[in-house]
TrEMBL record:
GO cellular component, one term: cytoplasm
Organism this protein belongs to: Streptomyces albus (strain ATCC 21838 / DSM 41398 / FERM P-419 / JCM 4703 / NBRC 107858)
Entry GO MF terms: electron-transferring-flavoprotein dehydrogenase activity; flavin adenine dinucleotide binding
Membrane-spanning segments: none
Name used for this protein in its record: FAD-dependent pyridine nucleotide-disulfide oxidoreductase
Pfam families registered for this protein in UniProt: Pyr_redox_2
Keyword Cell wall biogenesis/degradation: no
Length: 256
């Protein structure tokens, strides 16, 4: 049994997409569980997101009963390991106490690029991401490409972006091999994100359409979790009802 099922109070450190989505999933599955999100930043969801998107998410988190403790770094991390059920109390720099049975680290993911050596390491920026040209060549290299989350392309890090990077890099490699096809350039995607808060909640932002509500968010991501997209890509069949453990019944494939 997951430690979540036996916890009355959960602390999530980090109010980025991971912390927010996890808060929504916990509240959807165990509505009576107290969920507190703590972040040193003064608002949720760092990055170039419009303020009305953040406001909509804050409103929905409030409706779910998720407590936000923002602008409040902890004096010290909890004394127990992340993901292990063992009651504890932590204190913020302003002296506020938060008691919980379980906590999860929802911050601190870093690109794994430390293996680059020699000339290739020159493209490695201070935060571990890799500088690339608009053809997605590693900065300073004509024949090495980088794609996906490890790149410093200025856009939201998304699977969809990684897929589009792959198409551009593959086209450039094909041109190099055949001597035909010219150079292909990648244009960073405009800001956009689907952020479910449980299978039927949350909000999305799309540069052309603005802020989208819970129904559209559930349709785009919260309910199918993009499983249909990947099933189609890998030629897999949906599981039968007796073996099904996922969401996505009767949902259309997500465009992202
Ligand atoms: C909670 C959450 C929700 C998300 N929701 C969405 C969403 O709704 N839509 C969306 O488009 N995106 C979403 N994303 C973002 C998406 O998951 C990433 O943008 C995407 O996975 C990036 O793909 P990638 O191939 O660049 O990196 P990854 O998926 O991280 O894959 C990198 C792989 O390389 C491996 N690796 C690392 N080092 C080495 C090495 N030295 N040699 C070989 N292999 C190595 C890793 O083990 C890993 O398997 C979400 C992410 C999170 C965390």
């Amino acid at each position: 049994m997951t430690p979540l099922a036996t916890s009355d109070a959960v602390l999530l450190l980090g109010a980025g997409p991971v912390g927010l989505e996890l808060a929504g999933e916990i509240k959807a599955a165990w509505p009576a569980t107290a969920v507190t999100l703590v972040d040193p930043a003064h608002d949720i969801l760092a990055g170039p997101h419009p303020s009305q998107f953040r406001a909509e998410l804050r409103r929905k988190l409030d409706n779910l009963g998720v407590e936000l403790v923002l602008g409040a770094p902890l004096v010290a991390d909890p004394p127990t390991p992340s993901g292990v059920r063992a009651p504890f109390t932590v204190t913020t720099g302003e002296g506020r106490s938060v008691r919980a049975d379980l906590w999860y680290r929802c911050h601190g993911a870093a690109p794994a690029t430390g293996y680059l050596r020699g000339d290739l390491a020159v493209a490695r920026l201070e935060d571990g991401r890799l500088a690339v040209t608009d053809e997605l060549r590693l900065s300073g290299s004509a024949t090495v490409f980088a794609i996906g989350d490890i790149t410093a392309v200025p856009e939201t890090k998304l699977a969809k972006a990684a897929e589009l990077h792959a198409e551009v890099a593959a086209a450039n490699i094909r041109s190099m091999i055949t001597g035909k096809g010219g150079r292909h350039r990648y244009r960073p995607a405009p800001p956009g994100m689907s952020l479910p808060l449980g299978p039927a909640g949350g909000a999305s932002y799309n540069a052309a359409l603005g802020v989208l509500g819970a129904d559209r968010t559930a349709e785009l991501k919260g309910s199918p979790l993009r499983l249909d997209v990947y099933r189609a890509r890998f030629g897999l069949h949906r599981p039968t009802d007796s073996t099904r453990h996922d969401r996505g019944q009767d949902m259309p494939a997500s465009p992202r």
